[in-house]
Amino acid sequence: MTCEIITIGDELLIGQVINTNQAFIAEQLNTVGVFTDRMTTVGDDAEQIKKSFVDAYALHDVVCVTGGLGPTHDDITKKIVAEFFQTDLIMNEQVLSDIKALAQKRNISLIQSNIDQALVPRTCTVIPNTNGTAPGMMFENDAKYFFVMPGVPFEMKAMIEEWIIPFFKNKSDGLIVRHRTLKTTGIGESMLAHEIGDIDSITGTDGKATLAFLPNPIGTKLRITVKDYNAENVERKISAIEKVLRTKAEKYIYSSDEKELEDVIGILLREKRLTVATAESCTGGLIANRITNVPGSSDYFLRGFITYSNQSKVDELGIPMQLIVQQGAVSKEVAEAMARGARGVSKTDIAISCTGIAGPTGGSLEKPVGLCYIRWNYFEENY
Predict the structure, then answer these.
(1) Secondary structure class of 264 (helix, strand, coil)
(2) Domains in the chain, ordered, with CATH?
(3) In angstroms, rounded to a whole number, what is the distance separating the alpha carbons of residues 163 and 145?
(4) pLDDT tens column, 313-361
(5) What's the CA gap between 51 and 3, in Å, rounded?
(6) Dist CA 166 CA 164 (whole Å)
(7) Can you point out the beta strands (E) in 288-349?
């Protein structure tokens, strides 16, 4: 099945809100054999919304719409959906009961706009909203499926996971789609592709398996996708592809699941019973933030220093001011002294330092914007 995702809201078009709904819906539907081949975003304009409905419904098996179901004057999606399917709005007593129960649970009084959210198109199937007041809707006609959901992400996600994905699993023709993502770092996308070599020799040419390169600031994700009607064949194929990729690029791969780089580093530090401290200048604590985003990181992360000014490097880390004056705050020598000072003060096994010129100003010909020194200092008996 092919799908178009339509997201509605002026706030999306002006960049006030990041559109995460599209990515989530596409990713989830993909697992049940519904493949998104177009995404459309429109503002709170009735004519544009109608046109997007007409175009999407004519070209796709599935249409997923989010946004514009709230209680305010600019929430016009439900009315337009009713007009599109040539039906009227009626009060749904179950939805009204759910809204009243939610209001009581939150200890708030109902107003007419809340009650009006229980009005739904007569010919739709209601999708319960377990996290809010606006119900979702489904229209099914001639093997086409039209879903309408709130734009609030956690309300939409619950409908996708609890209702729409199970719905398509029951409708499935048996096609199984699985993904496995290998996360890499320390190598650029082009060099990684060079290391891996001919993709067809790894995935095959029968169309059942693909490999995608997904670059990001940390590294490149390798997403393996396999489709088949036999679960054992799918798992066998994914594992075989992963084995080949690891043979070619093992030293760059740090995770094959949802773990991020900081998770993997935390696991290694805990396994080796090592502790770490950070000393940051240009990054202003971002390294420490990444490390401490991991639950239980206090087992190995003992202290973080944000030594943004020259004087703070002297006061907090014991770096001689003369060294800073002679070499400059952004230098290999100062980075080394920062790491050494951080480990000495915090009594950790390892210390990492970072100093650089983040910009947009402050650079020179000798030390341009973007120059960064990263050093580490460690207790040698542990290595």
Answers:
(1) helix
(2) 2-171 (3.40.980.10), 176-255 (3.30.70.2860), 261-382 (3.90.950.20)
(3) 13
(4) 999 999 999 999 999 999 999 999 999 999 999 999 999 999 999 988 9
(5) 16
(6) 6
(7) 301-306
Q: Which residue has the tokens 């697992």?
A: 31
In this structure, how many other beta carbons lie within 10 angstroms of the beta carbon of residue 144?
Answer: 14
Compute how many other C-beta atoms are within 10 angstroms of the C-beta atom of residue 236: 13
pLDDT tens digits for range 42-90? 999 999 999 999 999 999 999 999 999 988 887 899 999 999 999 999 9
| 2: helix, strand or coil | strand
pLDDT tens, position by position, 281-322: 999 999 999 999 999 999 999 999 999 999 999 999 999 999
If you compute the radius of gyration of the chain from its CA atoms, what whole number of angstroms results? 27
Q: Are strands 209-215 and 350-356 parallel, antiparallel or unpaired?
A: unpaired
> Hey, what are 141's tokens?
């006609």
- Residue 164 is given by DSSP the state I
Q: Which two tokens stand for residue 365?
A: 């010909």
Facing residues of 4 across strands? 38, 63
